[in-house]
Amino acid sequence: IITEEVRQSDDVLPGAEEESVVRWGGEEFVVVFSQTNRDAAHFAAERIRARIAAELTTVRPNGEAVTISGGLAEYRTAEPSEVDNLLRAADEQLLAAKKSGKNIILPVPERAAA
């Protein structure tokens, strides 16, 4: 579902068609929305979240729908240290999304965007 919802132009890692979606560990994924503003990226992430909740309703033995939570951060410069800050900011928002009840995408607040 995630790779179906990500545009071809978001493929920023060379050599593969779907590498803009990367498994980060366990049940965590990083999705890169290239050349996309903050609002459009949030809209795309919400579309992915809603589709997963709507379509993955028979995966769990108890019939409970699969949901996702996410953190969204914006990459603004080409500084190498910013990638670490970007991932840290998105991860903090992911943890906040999980604490707030899950099944939500939380962007980094505008003033604190990485």
Outline of this structure?
This protein has 114 residues and is α+β, with helices and mostly antiparallel strands.
Architecture overview:
It contains 3 helices and 4 strands. By secondary structure, the protein is α+β, with helices and mostly antiparallel strands. A hairpin with a 2-residue loop joins strand 1 and strand 2. It is globular and about 45 Å long. The model is unreliable at 11-19 (pLDDT under 50).
Query: On the 0-100 scale, what is the average pLDDT?
Result: 79
Radius of gyration: 14 Å
Morphology call: globular
- Major beta sheet summary: 2 strands, antiparallel
Name the structural class.
alpha+beta
> How many separate helices?
3
Helix content: 25-40%
Assembly category: single chain
* End-to-end gap: 27 Å
Amount of beta strand = 5-15%
Q: How many β-strand stretches?
A: 4
Summarize the helix and strand pattern as letters: HEEHEHE
Low-confidence stretches: 11-19
Strand order of the largest sheet: 1-2
Helices and strands, with pairings:
Elements: H1 2-5, E1 21-25, E2 28-31, H2 38-55, E3 70-72, H3 80-99, E4 105-107
Features:
114 residues; alpha+beta; two-stranded antiparallel ribbon; two-stranded parallel sheet; 3 helices; 4 strands; 37% helix
